[in-house]
Amino acid sequence: MENTTDANLDYYIDLSAREELYSRKPTIRKDYRDISLGHNEVLINIVNRSVMIEKDTSEGVALHRISHFKKFTEYLLQRYSMDVSFRVILNIEDIPPDEDNCEYSKFAFARRHKSNNVLVPDCYISLFPSRIEVVNKYDIPFTEKVNKAIFIGADTGHQRIPFCHRYKESKVVFAKISSFIQNPSEKDEAILSPPLSIETQLKYRYLININGNSTSWDRLIWILNSNSICLFIIPPEELMSWYYHIFHQTLPFFYVKENEVEAFIETADEQSLLSHVEKQKALGKMLANIYTHELYLLTILHNFNALYNA
């Protein structure tokens, strides 16, 4: 993808970085000699435009996430000739489990709203180009889509299974679980469905986003790039990826309560939604552009380094 020319990009990057590093005032630790890492954490030393791993408790899928962060960060430092020098813990969990009790800030891919951790881009950004390619190839105009809503995804988090049960008899909401990987004891054929392709989901006017263990790292982004309206089911607690700061300024989706999806569809004004699609896609395009995430991480690295070495 080409670098975005959105006039608001610099503003949004500055806004997000300020919220992460100055408005919340992270607690920076410098002495890690006696540190005990939590599960799926690494102590990294960023120096000489390299990411050095000094301690590591990661396993499984977390290994891929560490590799992505290391390669992405080193690529940016070397490409833009940026010299920084600091140590920090990177937590690779969906949401760091000890956020409420942690005495100092860590880097994380997602966090709770009041957490003191510092957000960095997650590894799912590498999927954006292929996801958007599918959307661009198979999407159809909003007016040609089926006037229904769809959600399909794994059983992660606490909302998805109850949501699917709520709408299992609905005529306008198709809500299914594609795999019971965390709650196998709750497997129910009534809400089970094979995975559905993006191409199939794009036939619906409304695409539903529901948080899992964390924020929905790639689904939300490709939805925002489509001609379908994104309905974001209000979560029980606010979880954040770095770009959620932007949503506090301009909302590209509709927050909807779990029990109000059918009512939203029945009362929606088509002309208003058509106008909203253009706003949604403009922001979606910016967030799907890898350059946007590069610029944010560069800003975080530069500003964190300044705080660390002050």
List the helices and strands and how they pair.
Blueprint: H1 9-23, E1 41-47, E2 50-56, H2 62-79, E3 86-91, E4 107-108, E5 111-112, E6 118-119, H3 128-138, E7 146-154, H4 160-166, E8 173-179, H5 198-201, E9 204-209, H6 219-224, E10 229-233, E11 239-240, H7 244-247, E12 254-256, H8 261-267, H9 270-288, H10 290-308
Parallel strand pairs: 3-4, 4-6, 7-8, 7-9, 9-10, 10-12
Antiparallel strand pairs: 1-2, 1-3, 5-11
Helix pairs in contact: 1-10
CATH architecture call of the largest domain? 3-Layer(aba) Sandwich
How many discrete domains? Answer: 2
Secondary-structure element series = HEEHEEEEHEHEHEHEEHEHHH
CATH topology of the largest domain: Rossmann fold
The rough form would be described as: globular
Description:
There is one protein chain. The chain has 310 residues and is of the alpha/beta class. The chain has two domains: 9-123 and 290-308, no CATH class; 127-288, 3-Layer(aba) Sandwich (Rossmann fold), CATH 3.40.50. The protein has ten helices and twelve strands. A five-stranded mixed beta sheet has the order 2-1-3-4-6. Strand 1 (41-47) and strand 2 (50-56) form a beta hairpin. Helix 1 packs parallel to helix 10 (290-308). The chain starts with 8 loop residues before the first helix and ends with a helix.
Short description:
The chain is of the alpha/beta class and 310 residues long.
